[in-house]
Amino acid sequence: MRRNTRNSTIERMIEAMIHIKGRSERQSVVLSSAQSTPPGALWPSTAAEGARKSFAGSLLRHWAVRIPLIAAGWTALGVLFALPTLGTSHWSAELRIYLAQWWVWGLVTPLIVAVDRRLPFSGKDLGQRVVVHLGLSIVFTEIYFYLFTALRAAFGVTPWSSLQLKNLMSPSVIGWQIWCWMVYWIIAGGLQAYSYYERYLSSELRLQRLEHSFAEARLNALRMQLDPHFLFNALNTISSHVERDPKLTRRMIEHLGDLLRLSLESRDKQEVPLAEELEFLEHYLAIQKIRFGSQLRVKMQIAPEVRLAAVPALVIQPLVENAIRHGISRRAAGGAVTVQAVRQDGRLEIRVLDDGVGLPPGWSLENSAGLGLSITRERIAGLHPNGDSRFEVHNRAEGGTAAEISMPLRLVGEEEDGRALA
Do 192 and 247 share a domain, yes or no? Predict the structure, then answer.
Protein backbone atom coordinates (compact mmCIF):
# COMPACT_ATOMS: atom_id res chain seq x y z
CA MET A 1 0.00 0.00 0.00
CA ARG A 2 2.87 2.35 0.88
CA ARG A 3 4.62 1.61 -2.44
CA ASN A 4 1.47 2.32 -4.40
CA THR A 5 1.02 5.66 -2.59
CA ARG A 6 4.58 6.72 -3.38
CA ASN A 7 4.26 5.63 -6.99
CA SER A 8 1.05 7.61 -7.40
CA THR A 9 2.78 10.63 -5.83
CA ILE A 10 5.65 10.34 -8.32
CA GLU A 11 3.18 10.06 -11.20
CA ARG A 12 1.45 13.26 -10.02
CA MET A 13 4.87 14.94 -9.85
CA ILE A 14 5.56 13.87 -13.43
CA GLU A 15 2.24 15.24 -14.66
CA ALA A 16 2.72 18.54 -12.79
CA MET A 17 6.25 19.03 -14.11
CA ILE A 18 5.20 18.31 -17.70
CA HIS A 19 2.21 20.65 -17.35
CA ILE A 20 4.34 23.50 -15.97
CA LYS A 21 7.03 22.97 -18.60
CA GLY A 22 4.52 22.87 -21.47
CA ARG A 23 2.71 25.98 -20.24
CA SER A 24 5.95 27.95 -19.87
CA GLU A 25 7.04 26.92 -23.37
CA ARG A 26 3.74 28.02 -24.88
CA GLN A 27 3.93 31.36 -23.07
CA SER A 28 7.52 31.89 -24.18
CA VAL A 29 6.55 31.25 -27.80
CA VAL A 30 3.73 33.82 -27.62
CA LEU A 31 5.90 36.40 -25.86
CA SER A 32 8.84 35.96 -28.19
CA SER A 33 6.58 36.23 -31.23
CA ALA A 34 4.93 39.39 -29.91
CA GLN A 35 8.23 41.01 -29.02
CA SER A 36 10.21 40.09 -32.10
CA THR A 37 7.60 40.69 -34.81
CA PRO A 38 6.14 44.17 -35.28
CA PRO A 39 2.41 44.48 -36.06
CA GLY A 40 1.68 43.65 -39.68
CA ALA A 41 5.18 42.33 -40.35
CA LEU A 42 5.55 39.06 -42.17
CA TRP A 43 9.12 38.56 -41.11
CA PRO A 44 10.90 39.82 -37.94
CA SER A 45 13.94 41.01 -39.83
CA THR A 46 11.97 42.86 -42.56
CA ALA A 47 12.07 46.18 -40.71
CA ALA A 48 15.79 45.86 -40.08
CA GLU A 49 16.45 44.96 -43.70
CA GLY A 50 14.31 47.87 -44.94
CA ALA A 51 16.16 50.28 -42.63
CA ARG A 52 19.52 49.41 -44.15
CA LYS A 53 19.64 51.63 -47.23
CA SER A 54 22.73 52.54 -49.15
CA PHE A 55 23.88 56.13 -49.55
CA ALA A 56 23.20 55.96 -53.30
CA GLY A 57 19.68 54.69 -52.67
CA SER A 58 18.92 57.55 -50.29
CA LEU A 59 20.14 60.05 -52.87
CA LEU A 60 17.93 58.58 -55.59
CA ARG A 61 14.87 59.18 -53.43
CA HIS A 62 15.34 62.96 -53.76
CA TRP A 63 13.69 64.62 -56.76
CA ALA A 64 16.62 67.04 -57.06
CA VAL A 65 18.76 64.05 -58.03
CA ARG A 66 16.22 61.91 -59.84
CA ILE A 67 14.91 64.56 -62.27
CA PRO A 68 18.34 65.43 -63.74
CA LEU A 69 19.18 61.73 -64.09
CA ILE A 70 15.89 60.99 -65.85
CA ALA A 71 16.33 64.01 -68.12
CA ALA A 72 19.85 62.87 -68.97
CA GLY A 73 18.52 59.42 -69.87
CA TRP A 74 15.88 60.73 -72.29
CA THR A 75 18.42 63.12 -73.78
CA ALA A 76 20.81 60.26 -74.35
CA LEU A 77 18.06 58.41 -76.26
CA GLY A 78 17.47 61.43 -78.48
CA VAL A 79 21.19 61.77 -79.22
CA LEU A 80 21.45 58.04 -79.89
CA PHE A 81 18.68 58.13 -82.50
CA ALA A 82 20.21 61.24 -84.09
CA LEU A 83 23.68 59.69 -84.46
CA PRO A 84 23.09 58.36 -88.02
CA THR A 85 22.42 61.94 -89.23
CA LEU A 86 25.61 63.42 -87.81
CA GLY A 87 27.83 64.76 -90.58
CA THR A 88 24.90 65.50 -92.87
CA SER A 89 23.71 68.98 -93.79
CA HIS A 90 20.47 68.62 -91.80
CA TRP A 91 21.89 66.99 -88.65
CA SER A 92 20.98 70.00 -86.46
CA ALA A 93 17.29 69.82 -87.38
CA GLU A 94 17.24 66.02 -86.93
CA LEU A 95 18.88 66.30 -83.52
CA ARG A 96 16.22 68.82 -82.41
CA ILE A 97 13.45 66.58 -83.72
CA TYR A 98 14.74 63.53 -81.84
CA LEU A 99 15.37 65.52 -78.68
CA ALA A 100 11.82 66.89 -78.86
CA GLN A 101 10.51 63.36 -79.43
CA TRP A 102 12.19 61.77 -76.41
CA TRP A 103 11.87 64.76 -74.10
CA VAL A 104 8.11 64.67 -74.58
CA TRP A 105 8.13 60.94 -73.87
CA GLY A 106 10.02 61.83 -70.68
CA LEU A 107 7.09 64.08 -69.73
CA VAL A 108 4.30 61.70 -70.78
CA THR A 109 5.72 58.45 -69.38
CA PRO A 110 5.22 59.43 -65.67
CA LEU A 111 1.58 60.18 -66.53
CA ILE A 112 1.19 56.75 -68.12
CA VAL A 113 2.75 55.13 -65.03
CA ALA A 114 0.49 57.10 -62.66
CA VAL A 115 -2.68 56.19 -64.58
CA ASP A 116 -1.64 52.53 -64.85
CA ARG A 117 -1.08 52.24 -61.10
CA ARG A 118 -4.50 53.72 -60.38
CA LEU A 119 -6.43 51.30 -62.56
CA PRO A 120 -8.99 49.43 -60.41
CA PHE A 121 -7.70 46.01 -61.48
CA SER A 122 -5.28 43.63 -59.87
CA GLY A 123 -2.20 42.40 -61.64
CA LYS A 124 -3.99 39.15 -62.44
CA ASP A 125 -6.66 40.93 -64.51
CA LEU A 126 -4.38 41.35 -67.52
CA GLY A 127 -7.20 41.18 -70.06
CA GLN A 128 -9.10 44.06 -68.47
CA ARG A 129 -5.94 46.14 -68.25
CA VAL A 130 -5.23 45.58 -71.95
CA VAL A 131 -8.75 46.70 -72.87
CA VAL A 132 -8.39 49.88 -70.81
CA HIS A 133 -4.96 50.57 -72.29
CA LEU A 134 -6.45 50.30 -75.79
CA GLY A 135 -8.51 53.39 -75.05
CA LEU A 136 -5.73 55.10 -73.13
CA SER A 137 -3.27 54.50 -75.96
CA ILE A 138 -5.37 56.65 -78.33
CA VAL A 139 -5.75 59.45 -75.77
CA PHE A 140 -2.08 59.50 -74.78
CA THR A 141 -0.97 59.23 -78.43
CA GLU A 142 -2.88 62.42 -79.26
CA ILE A 143 -1.62 64.19 -76.12
CA TYR A 144 1.93 63.17 -76.93
CA PHE A 145 1.70 64.18 -80.59
CA TYR A 146 0.32 67.63 -79.72
CA LEU A 147 3.16 68.25 -77.21
CA PHE A 148 5.70 66.87 -79.66
CA THR A 149 4.47 69.18 -82.43
CA ALA A 150 4.51 72.16 -80.06
CA LEU A 151 8.09 71.46 -78.98
CA ARG A 152 9.20 71.03 -82.60
CA ALA A 153 7.64 74.39 -83.36
CA ALA A 154 9.43 75.91 -80.37
CA PHE A 155 12.71 74.51 -81.72
CA GLY A 156 11.99 76.11 -85.11
CA VAL A 157 11.78 72.80 -86.92
CA THR A 158 8.12 73.13 -87.92
CA PRO A 159 5.74 76.14 -88.19
CA TRP A 160 3.29 76.92 -85.39
CA SER A 161 0.47 76.34 -87.85
CA SER A 162 1.17 72.61 -87.43
CA LEU A 163 -0.76 72.80 -84.15
CA GLN A 164 -4.03 73.40 -85.99
CA LEU A 165 -6.46 70.50 -85.73
CA LYS A 166 -6.59 69.93 -89.49
CA ASN A 167 -2.81 69.57 -89.60
CA LEU A 168 -2.70 67.29 -86.54
CA MET A 169 -5.18 64.95 -88.25
CA SER A 170 -3.79 65.17 -91.78
CA PRO A 171 -2.72 61.99 -93.62
CA SER A 172 0.88 63.22 -93.71
CA VAL A 173 1.31 62.71 -89.95
CA ILE A 174 -0.44 59.33 -89.69
CA GLY A 175 2.94 57.55 -89.80
CA TRP A 176 4.18 59.67 -86.88
CA GLN A 177 1.06 58.90 -84.83
CA ILE A 178 1.30 55.17 -85.50
CA TRP A 179 4.93 55.28 -84.36
CA CYS A 180 3.86 57.15 -81.20
CA TRP A 181 1.09 54.61 -80.60
CA MET A 182 3.63 51.75 -80.83
CA VAL A 183 5.98 53.49 -78.38
CA TYR A 184 3.04 53.83 -75.96
CA TRP A 185 2.51 50.07 -76.06
CA ILE A 186 6.21 49.46 -75.51
CA ILE A 187 6.00 51.59 -72.37
CA ALA A 188 2.74 49.98 -71.21
CA GLY A 189 4.13 46.49 -71.89
CA GLY A 190 7.27 47.35 -69.93
CA LEU A 191 5.13 48.46 -67.01
CA GLN A 192 3.22 45.17 -67.00
CA ALA A 193 6.45 43.17 -67.25
CA TYR A 194 7.97 45.11 -64.36
CA SER A 195 4.81 44.63 -62.33
CA TYR A 196 4.91 40.88 -62.89
CA TYR A 197 8.60 40.86 -62.00
CA GLU A 198 7.85 42.66 -58.70
CA ARG A 199 5.11 40.16 -57.89
CA TYR A 200 7.46 37.32 -58.72
CA LEU A 201 10.13 38.66 -56.35
CA SER A 202 7.50 39.26 -53.68
CA SER A 203 6.14 35.72 -54.01
CA GLU A 204 9.67 34.29 -53.91
CA LEU A 205 10.46 36.24 -50.76
CA ARG A 206 7.16 35.21 -49.19
CA LEU A 207 7.84 31.58 -50.07
CA GLN A 208 11.31 31.75 -48.51
CA ARG A 209 9.84 33.24 -45.36
CA LEU A 210 7.17 30.56 -45.17
CA GLU A 211 9.76 27.82 -45.72
CA HIS A 212 11.99 29.29 -43.02
CA SER A 213 9.05 29.64 -40.62
CA PHE A 214 7.99 26.07 -41.36
CA ALA A 215 11.52 24.80 -40.72
CA GLU A 216 11.70 26.68 -37.41
CA ALA A 217 8.28 25.41 -36.35
CA ARG A 218 9.29 21.86 -37.25
CA LEU A 219 12.53 22.11 -35.28
CA ASN A 220 10.67 23.56 -32.29
CA ALA A 221 8.12 20.75 -32.46
CA LEU A 222 10.90 18.16 -32.54
CA ARG A 223 12.60 19.82 -29.57
CA MET A 224 9.34 19.86 -27.61
CA GLN A 225 8.95 16.13 -28.27
CA LEU A 226 12.47 15.44 -27.04
CA ASP A 227 12.21 17.28 -23.72
CA PRO A 228 9.32 15.20 -22.28
CA HIS A 229 10.98 12.06 -23.67
CA PHE A 230 14.17 12.45 -21.64
CA LEU A 231 12.21 13.80 -18.66
CA PHE A 232 10.00 10.71 -18.42
CA ASN A 233 13.01 8.43 -18.72
CA ALA A 234 14.87 10.30 -15.98
CA LEU A 235 11.83 10.25 -13.68
CA ASN A 236 11.36 6.52 -14.26
CA THR A 237 14.98 6.00 -13.26
CA ILE A 238 14.40 8.01 -10.07
CA SER A 239 11.16 6.23 -9.22
CA SER A 240 12.92 2.86 -9.32
CA HIS A 241 15.20 3.97 -6.44
CA VAL A 242 12.62 5.58 -4.16
CA GLU A 243 12.19 2.49 -1.98
CA ARG A 244 15.77 1.21 -2.11
CA ASP A 245 17.72 4.34 -1.26
CA PRO A 246 15.81 7.56 -0.45
CA LYS A 247 19.06 9.50 0.10
CA LEU A 248 20.32 8.71 -3.41
CA THR A 249 16.86 9.49 -4.76
CA ARG A 250 17.04 12.99 -3.29
CA ARG A 251 20.40 13.53 -5.01
CA MET A 252 18.87 12.35 -8.29
CA ILE A 253 16.00 14.79 -7.89
CA GLU A 254 18.47 17.63 -7.31
CA HIS A 255 20.24 16.80 -10.58
CA LEU A 256 16.87 16.48 -12.33
CA GLY A 257 15.98 19.97 -11.11
CA ASP A 258 19.22 21.26 -12.65
CA LEU A 259 18.35 19.45 -15.88
CA LEU A 260 14.95 21.11 -16.01
CA ARG A 261 16.45 24.53 -15.30
CA LEU A 262 19.01 24.17 -18.10
CA SER A 263 16.35 22.84 -20.45
CA LEU A 264 14.07 25.81 -19.77
CA GLU A 265 16.96 28.27 -20.19
CA SER A 266 17.73 26.89 -23.65
CA ARG A 267 14.14 26.33 -24.78
CA ASP A 268 14.26 29.27 -27.24
CA LYS A 269 17.62 28.26 -28.72
CA GLN A 270 18.05 25.85 -31.58
CA GLU A 271 21.84 25.90 -31.13
CA VAL A 272 23.99 26.29 -28.00
CA PRO A 273 27.74 26.21 -27.32
CA LEU A 274 29.13 22.71 -26.86
CA ALA A 275 30.22 23.64 -23.33
CA GLU A 276 26.60 24.37 -22.40
CA GLU A 277 25.49 21.06 -23.90
CA LEU A 278 28.18 19.24 -21.90
CA GLU A 279 27.00 20.94 -18.69
CA PHE A 280 23.53 19.58 -19.35
CA LEU A 281 25.02 16.16 -20.03
CA GLU A 282 26.95 16.16 -16.75
CA HIS A 283 23.74 16.43 -14.70
CA TYR A 284 22.17 13.60 -16.68
CA LEU A 285 25.26 11.43 -16.20
CA ALA A 286 25.24 12.21 -12.49
CA ILE A 287 21.80 10.60 -12.25
CA GLN A 288 22.95 7.56 -14.21
CA LYS A 289 26.14 7.19 -12.13
CA ILE A 290 24.06 7.17 -8.96
CA ARG A 291 21.94 4.44 -10.50
CA PHE A 292 24.70 2.21 -11.93
CA GLY A 293 27.53 3.03 -9.53
CA SER A 294 30.90 1.62 -10.56
CA GLN A 295 29.33 -0.33 -13.43
CA LEU A 296 29.15 2.87 -15.50
CA ARG A 297 32.39 4.55 -16.55
CA VAL A 298 32.32 7.77 -18.53
CA LYS A 299 35.22 9.32 -20.45
CA MET A 300 35.05 12.87 -21.79
CA GLN A 301 37.53 13.66 -24.58
CA ILE A 302 36.71 17.22 -25.63
CA ALA A 303 39.25 19.30 -27.57
CA PRO A 304 39.59 22.80 -26.01
CA GLU A 305 39.16 24.60 -29.36
CA VAL A 306 35.65 23.19 -29.90
CA ARG A 307 34.10 23.99 -26.51
CA LEU A 308 32.41 27.06 -28.01
CA ALA A 309 31.31 25.27 -31.18
CA ALA A 310 27.63 25.57 -32.08
CA VAL A 311 25.66 22.34 -31.66
CA PRO A 312 21.92 21.61 -31.68
CA ALA A 313 20.54 21.96 -28.16
CA LEU A 314 19.98 18.63 -26.40
CA VAL A 315 21.77 16.62 -29.09
CA ILE A 316 24.36 14.59 -27.15
CA GLN A 317 22.14 13.49 -24.26
CA PRO A 318 19.90 11.20 -26.40
CA LEU A 319 22.99 9.50 -27.82
CA VAL A 320 24.46 8.90 -24.34
CA GLU A 321 21.07 7.74 -23.07
CA ASN A 322 20.82 5.16 -25.86
CA ALA A 323 24.38 3.98 -25.18
CA ILE A 324 23.54 3.42 -21.51
CA ARG A 325 20.04 1.96 -21.88
CA HIS A 326 20.62 -0.30 -24.88
CA GLY A 327 24.32 -1.01 -24.52
CA ILE A 328 25.70 -0.78 -21.00
CA SER A 329 22.61 -1.69 -18.91
CA ARG A 330 22.31 -5.06 -20.71
CA ARG A 331 25.72 -6.19 -19.55
CA ALA A 332 26.07 -7.56 -16.04
CA ALA A 333 29.56 -6.12 -15.75
CA GLY A 334 28.49 -2.69 -17.01
CA GLY A 335 30.75 -0.79 -19.39
CA ALA A 336 32.17 2.53 -20.53
CA VAL A 337 30.76 5.42 -22.53
CA THR A 338 33.15 7.80 -24.26
CA VAL A 339 32.13 11.23 -25.55
CA GLN A 340 34.56 12.75 -28.06
CA ALA A 341 34.49 16.14 -29.78
CA VAL A 342 37.31 17.28 -32.05
CA ARG A 343 37.98 19.68 -34.89
CA GLN A 344 38.83 18.00 -38.18
CA ASP A 345 39.24 19.80 -41.54
CA GLY A 346 37.15 22.76 -40.44
CA ARG A 347 34.34 20.53 -39.17
CA LEU A 348 33.08 19.49 -35.75
CA GLU A 349 33.22 15.74 -35.21
CA ILE A 350 31.23 14.36 -32.25
CA ARG A 351 31.30 10.68 -31.30
CA VAL A 352 29.53 8.78 -28.55
CA LEU A 353 31.12 5.34 -28.13
CA ASP A 354 30.18 2.47 -25.85
CA ASP A 355 31.46 -1.08 -25.34
CA GLY A 356 28.01 -2.55 -24.76
CA VAL A 357 26.15 -5.32 -26.54
CA GLY A 358 26.02 -3.49 -29.88
CA LEU A 359 23.19 -3.20 -32.36
CA PRO A 360 20.98 -6.18 -33.20
CA PRO A 361 21.25 -7.79 -36.66
CA GLY A 362 19.41 -5.90 -39.36
CA TRP A 363 19.23 -2.69 -37.33
CA SER A 364 19.17 0.54 -39.33
CA LEU A 365 18.83 4.19 -38.38
CA GLU A 366 16.07 4.72 -40.94
CA ASN A 367 13.81 1.85 -39.87
CA SER A 368 14.79 0.78 -36.35
CA ALA A 369 15.70 3.98 -34.47
CA GLY A 370 13.69 4.99 -31.43
CA LEU A 371 12.20 8.40 -30.72
CA GLY A 372 15.42 9.95 -29.39
CA LEU A 373 17.60 8.96 -32.35
CA SER A 374 14.92 9.77 -34.94
CA ILE A 375 14.35 13.26 -33.57
CA THR A 376 18.11 13.85 -33.29
CA ARG A 377 18.61 12.87 -36.92
CA GLU A 378 15.78 15.13 -38.12
CA ARG A 379 16.99 18.11 -36.07
CA ILE A 380 20.55 17.84 -37.38
CA ALA A 381 19.28 17.57 -40.95
CA GLY A 382 16.87 20.48 -40.38
CA LEU A 383 19.62 22.79 -39.10
CA HIS A 384 21.82 21.88 -42.07
CA PRO A 385 19.37 21.40 -44.97
CA ASN A 386 22.08 21.73 -47.62
CA GLY A 387 23.57 18.36 -46.71
CA ASP A 388 26.58 19.70 -44.80
CA SER A 389 25.89 17.44 -41.81
CA ARG A 390 26.15 13.71 -41.23
CA PHE A 391 24.67 11.48 -38.52
CA GLU A 392 25.43 7.76 -38.31
CA VAL A 393 24.96 4.97 -35.79
CA HIS A 394 26.81 1.68 -36.34
CA ASN A 395 28.53 -1.20 -34.57
CA ARG A 396 32.18 -0.84 -33.60
CA ALA A 397 34.74 -3.38 -34.77
CA GLU A 398 35.98 -3.82 -31.19
CA GLY A 399 32.45 -4.26 -29.86
CA GLY A 400 29.73 -1.86 -28.84
CA THR A 401 28.11 0.98 -30.73
CA ALA A 402 29.28 4.29 -32.17
CA ALA A 403 27.07 7.33 -32.82
CA GLU A 404 28.80 9.96 -34.97
CA ILE A 405 27.85 13.53 -35.85
CA SER A 406 29.73 15.66 -38.37
CA MET A 407 28.81 19.29 -39.08
CA PRO A 408 30.47 22.58 -40.06
CA LEU A 409 32.46 24.12 -37.21
CA ARG A 410 31.09 27.51 -36.13
CA LEU A 411 31.73 29.31 -32.86
CA VAL A 412 29.04 30.86 -30.65
CA GLY A 413 28.96 32.26 -27.16
CA GLU A 414 31.80 34.50 -26.03
CA GLU A 415 33.63 34.29 -29.36
CA GLU A 416 30.61 34.35 -31.66
CA ASP A 417 31.45 36.15 -34.87
CA GLY A 418 29.15 34.34 -37.32
CA ARG A 419 32.08 33.12 -39.42
CA ALA A 420 32.87 29.50 -40.18
CA LEU A 421 36.36 28.41 -39.29
CA ALA A 422 38.61 27.44 -42.17
Answer: no
103 in any annotated domain: yes
> Are both 201 and 244 inside the same structural domain?
no
Binning pLDDT at 50, 70 and 90, where does residue 40 land? very low
Residue bearing the bigger pLDDT, 6 or 131 = 131
Confidence at 241, pLDDT banded by 50, 70, 90: low
Which residue in 196, 187, 178 sits closest to 142, CA to CA? 178
pLDDT band at 299 (very low <50, low <70, confident <90, very high): very high
- pLDDT for 37 equals 38
Determine the length of the chain: 422
Position 310 in a domain: yes
Same domain, 140 and 285: no
How far, in Å, CA of 129 to CA of 121, rounded? 7
Identify whether residues 192 and 250 lie together within a single domain. no
Q: Would you say 284 and 317 are in contact if contact means Cβ atoms under 8 Å apart?
A: yes
Q: What is the mean pLDDT of residues 49-56?
A: 48
Query: CB-side exposure of 410: number of CA atoms within 13 Å?
Result: 16
Among the ranges given (46-50, 67-71, 209-213), the one the predictor scored with the smallest mean pLDDT: 46-50
Give the pLDDT confidence of 61-88 residue by residue, as tens digits.
666 767 787 788 888 888 888 888 777 8
Q: pTM for this one?
A: 0.49
Q: Does 360 reside within a domain?
A: yes
Instruction: Tell me the residue range of the domain where 349 lies.
Output: 240-415
Assess whether 280 and 411 both reside in one domain: yes
Instruction: Count structural domains, the chain.
Output: 2
Tell me if 67 is assigned to some domain. Answer: yes
Domain's final residue, options 184, 208, 232: 208
The yes-or-no verdict on residue 152 having pLDDT over 70 is yes
One domain, residues 261 and 203: no
